[in-house]
Each structure stands twice: as C-alpha cells, then as structure tokens.
Input
Amino acid sequence: IRLFTVTPKQKAKCLETAGDNDNYAPHKCQKLCHKVKNSLPRPTSHRSCTDGCKAGATQALQLGCSSVTTAKACREEASTHCNEQCADYLNQFPRPALYDLCRNNCNDILAETCDHAIKELAVARKLPDIKMPVPSL
Output
C-alpha cells in the first residue's frame, strides 16, 4: 500500500538516518550472525548468513524509505527479493543448508528494519525544510 509519494530529499534523509551512514546493516547482521561464526563449513556459513542479512536489511531500508507504506507491506515486498539475493548459495555445499541460512537471515532482519525505516521516514517527512504538502482530496 503506497499512500503518498516521497521527495528525493526525504528519501535521502531517511536513508542517511535509518541506515546510520551505512553502519546499520553491518552492525545488526554481526549480532544476528554471531551464532554461526564458527559453524562448518567456515567461513562460508557465516558469509551466507551475513550476505542474506545485509541483503534483507538493504532492501528493507530502500523500500521503507522510498514510500509511505505499512511495515507489513514493506516486509512482504522485501521478502520476495531474499530468494534472488541468496541465489549464489543455491548450489553450494552443504546444499540446501547454505541457501536456507542466507534466505532465513534475509527474512529475519526484515521486520525490524522495515519498522525502523518507516519510523525514520515519518520523522524525515515532518522536517520543515523537506515537508511534503498535504494532498487535497
């Protein structure tokens, strides 16, 4: 559900603050994937986890900051990209464990990141220098 459009300045401000100057995904993914850091095969398991997580977080930030939407719609749209983002792990051994690890961590980060991006977009839309005009009905 896209309710209003977002100006380029609002999107840029949202991505800057929500993405914490590109530190958001690496920080969150490091915490999320710590549990598989020493899992075999090393370092491939950890890499598939972080790749999936970063892909999901990046996609959720882009979607959440690009349009005024609901968290549920953001998660659903972003989750469609997880299979595509993790395709490199589809044929790597142990198969399908690495692909599933990547895809699951991609999906795991979506809810939190979509919520975060949507909140930051709401803040960006309220800033006086980039506030959007209220649409007339």
In short: The mean pLDDT is 86. Helices lie at 8-18, 24-33, 44-66, 71-79, 82-85, 97-126. The two ends are 18 Å apart (CA to CA). The chain has six helices and no strands.
